[in-house]
Amino acid sequence: MDFRLTQPQRDLQTAARGLADFMTKYELACEEDNGLPAEAHAEVRDAVLAAGLQAINMPAEWGGAGLTIFEQAVVQEQLGRLTGALWDMVWRPANALRFCTPEQRERFLKPVIRGERRDCYAVTEPNAGSDPQNLTTTAAKVDGGWSLSGEKWFVTVGDHADFLIVLAAAGDTGAPTLFLVDKATEGVAVKRTPRFMHTFVYEHPEFTFADVFVPDDQVLGGIGEGYDITRAWFTEERLMIAARTIGAAERALELARDWAVEREQFGQPIANFQLIQGMLADCAVDIAVNRAYFLQVAWEISQPDADRKTLHAKAAIAKLAASEASNRVIDRCVQIFGGRGYDRSYPVERLYRELRVDRIWEGTSEIQRLVVAGELIKRGTGVLRLPS
Amino acid sequence: MDFRYTPAQRDLKQRAADYVKLLMQYEEQAEQARGALPKEIVRELTRAAMDAGVYAINMPVEWGGPGLSLLEQVIVEEEFGKATNCLWDIPWRPSNVLAYGTSEQREKYLLPIIRGEKFDAFAVTEPDAGSDPASGVTVARRTAGGWLLSGEKWFVTCGDIADFLLVQADALVETADGSGPQKLATLFFVDKHAPGLEMTRVPHFMHHAVNGHPEFTLTDVFVADEDVLGEVGQGYELTKEWFTDERLMIAARTVGAAERALQEARDWAVERQAFGKPIAEFQLIQAMLADCAVDIAVNRAYTHQVAWEADQPDTDRKTLHAKASTAKLAASEAAGRVADRCVQIFGGRGYDSAYAVERIFRELRVDRIWEGTSEIQRVIIANELVKRGTASLAVPGPALTHPAPENED
User: Between A and B, how many residue pairs show a Cβ–Cβ distance under 8 A?
Assistant: First the structure.
């Protein structure tokens, strides 16, 4: 065993922290204006490229940073400190795009890696989400391609994206399949752009598809491969949520600790009061144990001989544990800040609203529990063992 | 980073696990006897622990122990923790501070313990002192050739079977300026048969542990100068070092106990039928199982991390004290939650002391109390945060042998 970051990993962490610190200057504007102007996007894009943190999940040969899952988690933890979900401006193309044909790669993936275009993933529907088997978005075979019809919810970055990766039931058998759909295609419409609890730099609009023609060469990864590709994406994405929520929780604790040391009541810093100390300590516990675990799982996933099934459950444990823990942390930190913790110009207020969705997206906490319990029931408690 | 056990560590874990299976055969007998086991059985289990290389694991090879690192001790103690009735006390763990004894003290006190011939017990807590050891009223007055100890000690774990006690007392030392005696916390070796030492009460606790936690009174107990451990005035420092190790081991044992509880609850849920199907098929049961997995997985990772850090020579000791508190607080509270859910999954059988989950539920409760309550751990952690910020939460960095970047300001 060795619990140290290596020097290159530490350097990567420092670079990610530097980028996050640079980006904090956009946080308030994003909160106040519900988004950022084009020039801010351009500045961040340049900073991401300068830091070498573009498309960290894509191989260097295609222009990405080519990081391992472990290294990605190290980076995401630092970016998770940002409010307004500004971490999402440090683009990570959907892993599904790895399944692009060489032609699709040139047209769809590489411009995303370069930061010139954006992708978004359209999976959830009015009656399908965690249960993707109930898909009602269909793709009917037509001459030279497919005709897509249906509705998709919570299409994160859908406002900013140039194309969508749409999961639909293809053909008579309803084979779950991914399609690359240009947003400008006829029949693609934004139905609604909901206002959410958080003030995310991008939106999560709802889309409708009305007989949208998609040519055969825009099927991604083959007919019927849609679930398997999406599932692999969930494993990694859940781990990245674990990493980001711990980064966010740590920033909140740093701020709450500083506040408690400086803020005076009854003639002394509130940090002197044990009820405040108890909250600070419980935050430290939530952060420390979850950091150790998400790093462990990220390390395990990065090993060539990793057992994928068990890792799916471990990623679910990491996501469930870290997102719930970070919500406890931020609740306490708001409490320590008192009225100022309720003020949107303070990061703890924004993190409080923003972290709430981490218990919902990429599978709710309840879905993670079902995944974990399924693993325990099928294969016993071996999932809890440390690797050897 | 590398989260793998080495082959040697994996073998060690297996040896500990095999030994614990042997201990488990005596759980029911211990439970029915309110904890204690016949001496001959204890001797047999002691020999078995020595054969397995898991006796006195914190003591170096040169003195007859297996000489395990703290990480290796955590690996072993995690398995130990799966045994109920504190049977893990049979593979004796001498107080780590005994290593600071003189060579004469080592021959007289420590080596017989490592050989399984004698037993020690640590006496710190008092009616009005425990987590706050500075208010201790057990005092040591100077007398010819030694000290006279007077006071009262509570919760002296294993004090019933111990041959001697390590007693923390305030040595009263006259100051040169005549401003009255100075109180210097000091550790003393006190033989169980020393005149004036009396075991006044052996309370019955919630758990039925193999060894008791009796109370003692000391009335002018004579302790010779050569039976002072370390220096006069070094008592807190040594006690604190003992706490760091013990808190880490509590974290390890509670994770192990929680894992056993979950294994049993999972098997029960898969086998027990209600409404025509295994209760494992109900989502409310599944959620309890999953929440247990979360509590175990994250605490296992962190406990190993802190033990590994404790073994590194360049680790900052102050931060480590806070990290051991974090591990102990986190793991003991988590294990308490796990045991509660597992009792719930077992239903009425979870309330039946013939079932391990019932015993684990009672036994884990004390891990949130002893070696510093959860509240004391929180105070220690908060002090670290207030004094030095959140740096104690960072994972360790590269080895110091790596050249530092140039021009780093």
Answer: 207
CA distance A284 to A253: 8
Q: Provide the b/e sequence for B103-134 (b: ≥16 CB within 10 Å).
A: eebbebbbbbbbebebbbbbbbbbeebbeebe
Residues A176-230 pLDDT 10s: 999 999 999 999 999 999 999 999 999 999 999 999 999 999 999 999 999 889 8
Buried/exposed B273-308: b ≥16 CB within 10 Å, e otherwise: eeeeebbbbeeebbbbbbbbbbbbbbbbbbbbbbbb
Pure H helices in chain A: 7-23, 27-33, 38-51, 69-79, 102-104, 110-113, 226-262, 274-301, 308-337, 347-355, 365-379
Q: What is the pLDDT of residue B233?
A: 94
Residue of A nearest to B10 (CA): A388
Mean pLDDT by 10 residues, chain A (388 residues): 95 98 98 96 98 97 97 98 98 95 98 97 84 85 98 95 97 95 98 94 97 98 92 88 98 98 94 97 98 98 88 96 98 96 96 96 94 96 93
Residue B129 DSSP code:
B
CB atoms near residue B247 (< 10 Å): 27
Interface test with A, best of B385, B400, B402, B408 (most A CBs within 10 A): B385
- Cβ pair A94, A233 in contact under 8 A: yes
Residue with tokens 């399944």: A99
Among the listed residues B60, B62, B80, the one whose alpha carbon sits nearest the alpha carbon of residue B12: B80
Of A9, A284, A384, the CB nearest to B296: A384
Nearest CA in chain A to B299: A289
Candidates B6, B285, B302; nearest CB to A289: B302
| Interchain proximity A285–B10, CB inside 8 Å | no
Angstrom CA distances, A31 to A249, A346, B66, stand at: 19, 11, 59
Burial B257-267 (b: 16+ CB within 10 A, else e): bbbbbbbbbbe
CB spacing of A292 vs B305 below 8 angstroms: yes
Tokens at A367, concatenated: 């879905």
List chain B residues with CB under 8 Å of A329. none
Alpha-carbon distance of B350 to B359, in angstroms, equals 9
Q: Is B231 helix (H, G, I), strand (E, B) or coil?
A: coil
Tell me the C-alpha to C-alpha distance, in Å, between residue A107 and each of A103, A104, A111, A119, B217: 6, 5, 7, 12, 84
Chain A: give the shortest CA distance to residue B2, in Å.
5
Give the list of residues 6+ apart from residue A283 with CB closer than 8 angstroms, or none.
Answer: A249, A252, A253, A256, A328, A329, A332, A333
Q: How many CB atoms lie within 10 A of CB A362?
A: 22
Tell me, what's the pLDDT at A130? 67
The reported pTM is 0.91
Q: For residue A180, give every residue at least 6 positions away whose Cβ sits within 8 Å of its Cβ, in sequence order, or none.
A: A104, A108, A163, A164, A165, A214, A218, A219, A220
SS3 A34: coil
Local structure of B33: helix, strand or coil? coil
> Is residue B43's pLDDT more than 70?
yes
Q: Respond yes or no on whether ipTM tops 0.90.
A: no
Q: Which residues of B touch A370 (CB under 8 A)?
A: 283, 286, 290
Contact A260 B286 (CB under 8 A): no
Please name the residue of chain B whose CA is at the shortest distance from the CA of residue A284. B393
Q: Which tokens belong to B242?
A: 């003992």
Instruction: Take residue B95 and report the two structure tokens written for it.
Output: 């107080």
Report d(CA B217, CA B201) in Å as an integer. Answer: 10
